[in-house]
């Protein structure tokens, strides 16, 4: 967290940066494909809702050096959250589509979580 929330009763106004391992499957010891990098900001005052901007930066295999960019609303306590893919680079240039995010594990005390992203991408 680089900016604390406005009040103690909500995450509204909080800003957190992320730079997490991007793995092929949910288990943390799964094959690392790259990094999930970006930020999320508390954007809802009456629920746990974030503005999320994130890049999936691939660092191995066929997609090495390519990125997928996600920008959207993340209501973190919803079972499934859909966010748009707004672009990409490298092999994902002109990418469009969406991701579905599902929280698989969360520590509510420190905010650590494991989230599965299913990506549906169209690109040239």
Properties at a glance:
124 residues, mainly beta, 7-stranded antiparallel beta sheet, 7 strands, 56% strand, globular, Allene_oxi_cyc_Dirigent
Average pLDDT works out at 93
Helix content: under 10%
Q: What's the count of strands?
A: 7
Largest sheet: 7 strands, antiparallel
Radius of gyration: 15 Å
In whole angstroms, the N-to-C terminal distance is: 36 Å
Which parts are unreliable, with pLDDT below 50 for 5 consecutive residues or more? Answer: none
Kindly report the spatial arrangement of strands forming the biggest sheet.
1-2-3-4-5-6-7
Helix vs. strand class: mainly beta
Shape: globular
Series of secondary-structure elements, N-terminal to C-terminal: EEEEEEE
Number of helices: 0
Percent strand:
over 45%
Describe this structure in words.
- The model has no long low-confidence stretch (mean pLDDT 93).
- With 124 residues, this protein is mainly β.
- The protein is globular.
- The protein has no helices and seven strands.
- Helices cover 0% and strands 56% of the residues.
- Strands 1-2-3-4-5-6-7 form a seven-stranded antiparallel beta sheet, with no helix packed on it.
SSE blueprint:
Elements lengths: L14 E9 L8 E11 L6 E10 L8 E9 L5 E9 L6 E11 L6 E10 L2
Short description:
This is Dirigent protein. The chain has 124 residues and is mainly beta. The chain contains no helices and seven strands.
